[in-house]
């Protein structure tokens, strides 16, 4: 059996772009759900989703804090979330 050591915690969620903000919003019983903004959902039955909020939102995610802009252009957004959380 191998041992595992957790050396840190990283989160990018609809409730915040970092651990502290996400945890604060969880404790405050806030919801990450809202209208879909990443594409036109007007012809869909469901128009609500839990999207990671943009940087200009109250508890949005700013990818420029930890991920180089050149990398952001080369990969999908979920990769940027993973790099930031790691």
Explain the overall architecture.
With 86 residues, the chain is mainly alpha-helical. The protein is globular and about 50 Å long. The model has no long low-confidence stretch (mean pLDDT 91).
Could you give the topology of this structure?
Blueprint: H1 19-27, E1 34-35, E2 48-49, H2 69-74, H3 77-85
Antiparallel strand pairs: 1-2
Number of DSSP-assigned strands: 2
Number of helices: 3
Molecular shape: globular
Q: Terminal Cα separation, in Å? A: 25 Å
Secondary structure: helix percent:
25-40%
Q: What Rg is obtained from the alpha carbons, in whole angstroms?
A: 15 Å
- The low-confidence parts are none
Beta-strand content bin? under 5%
Biggest sheet, in brief?
2 strands, antiparallel
Order of helices and strands: HEEHH
Strand order of the largest sheet: 1-2
Class per helix and strand makeup: mainly alpha
Mean pLDDT: 91
Structure at a glance:
The protein is mainly α and 86 residues long. The protein has three helices and two strands, in the order H-E-E-H-H. It has a two-stranded antiparallel ribbon.
Please supply descriptive tags for the structure shown above.
two-stranded antiparallel ribbon; 28% helix; globular
């Amino acid at each position: 059996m191998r041992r595992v050591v957790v050396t840190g915690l990283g989160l990018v969620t609809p409730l915040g772009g970092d651990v502290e903000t996400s945890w604060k919003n969880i404790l405050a019983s806030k919801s990450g759900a809202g209208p879909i903004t990443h594409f036109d959902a007007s012809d869909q039955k469901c128009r609500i989703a839990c999207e990671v909020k943009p940087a200009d939102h109250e508890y949005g995610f700013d990818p420029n804090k930890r991920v180089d802009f050149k990398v952001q252009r080369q990969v999908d957004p979920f990769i940027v979330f993973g790099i930031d959380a790691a």
